[in-house]
Give the backbone structure.
Amino acid sequence: MSAVENRPDMHKVDRLVEALAREMARRISRRRLIGSLGALLCGASALPLLPVARGAPAATGPAVADAGDPKSCDYWRHCAIDGFLCSCCGGSSHSCPPGTEASAITWVGTCHNPGDGHDYIVSYNDCCGKSSCGRCLCNRNENDKPLYMPFMSNDYNWCAGSQVGIAYHCSTSRIVGLSK
Amino acid sequence: MLWALGLLCGGPIAAAPLPNESASTEQLPPHPGPHWVWVNDFNFFSMADGRAYLVDGDSGRMLGLISTGYSYNSVLLPRSADLIYSPETYYSRGTRGTRSDVVTLYDPAHLQPVGEIAIPPKRSSNMPMAGAAALTDDERFLIIYNFTPAQSVSVIDMSARKFVGEIETAGCSLVYPTGRRTFFSICADGSLLLTTLTDAGALASRMRSAALFDSMKDPLTEKAVRVGEVWLFASFQGTMYPIRSTPRGVVLDAKWPLVTAAEQAQGWRTGGLQHLAVHRASGRLFAIMHKGSLDTHKNPGTDLWVYDLRAKKKVQQITLRHKAGSIVVSQDAKPLLFTCFIESNVLDIYDALSGSYLRSVDSLGQTPTIMVTP
């Protein structure tokens, strides 16, 4: 194991897993404490970079920094997604459609945003509890890894970690941090 | 004259009426034909309604179907029992309610359930692949990979038809049998976890190997094929890793390239959902190949490359009629090769020795995934 930990490439994995762990902790906290201050702070931290991602798009108009159509498979955040795009299903790139639950944990990828030149860690939370949305199927596999590397694999149904069971509906592409 | 009279009267000849028919149900022979194939469909657009289709490759006729529940992976076909094993998941309200996981036993002649074994509701839901469940070599135990997302396996005694227990495989995934009581799982750091069972199906021992491959620089696809004591894994960049089971554990045999440097420079690589197949008697390995970048490891292929496993050399190239993401080959002396692709629902059938296209079967399910031959 130590040989692995010394590999430069694994630092990237460590960062991804760290981001995932922080995100998981945030989500669990949110379920227990409505209006959790931690969740607000986490959301606020992304605001200066990508106003559309967390804020209200109507207030700021088109955001050049987050250019692209979330309903299109080519949208930059979907670089490692595998499933139906929630933006086509009544949700958005970071929210689940009504009546579905976002998976508590999931896989993460790193996507390059051509709008601002940054690389972002993107969490591909599945939305769970209903039958497949069936719209805007999208499979991109940038840096996707096999099933034996779960947190880098888009071949799992991540509804496995949800409270409502494994019925898969659609997938989101949420920004959870900058990839440094 | 009667014929002419019939024409003059503007109608067909009056013939004896067709006999009445009684309602009946077809029955299959108890043993499968050598060219039968099961095509599993996890029905991605309606996952609660998984299916497995049975097709006769010689005639192209669909023979029957079994209904297999939510997020279906694959049937398993034991040689030692006239049964079909099928790990399945159901919800009491279709997509919600109480989850129940079972191994259903089907009668192969009637394609009807004849038994059911309750297992923990933990069966991994993932893109279907052969490593999600497997029988030990004596077919006594069925091992099912669990992902909740905690990783473990469920052990089921198929002789006693009962769940035996759960064995943790933290950090390691899937199931690759290597003997009567042994199997390995692949770990995220490139090592393998070898698990040994007791004769009662309990954990006897666990052994973790050194890292056998670099999971970050050139991962192995988990869609391996087995030839005797060797599991063949292809890496993303086109190197074959033969992993051999020995009495002292698993070892890596000499690696060999699937592509030459020139072919690699052209972008040739293997990919798909079930992208390797072996015809054991002839020692031929079939690999689905396409041209693409490194992140195209799930793309379907335009060609099949055929290798002589003894010489470790490519000996044939077959251009496919339709792109394929999955292949399987029958194991008889005149083998058929079957191909399908999840984004299509057409099964193509080839002569596996000559590579000649024979026939297609269309409208087979919605999202066919992996195939199994007897």
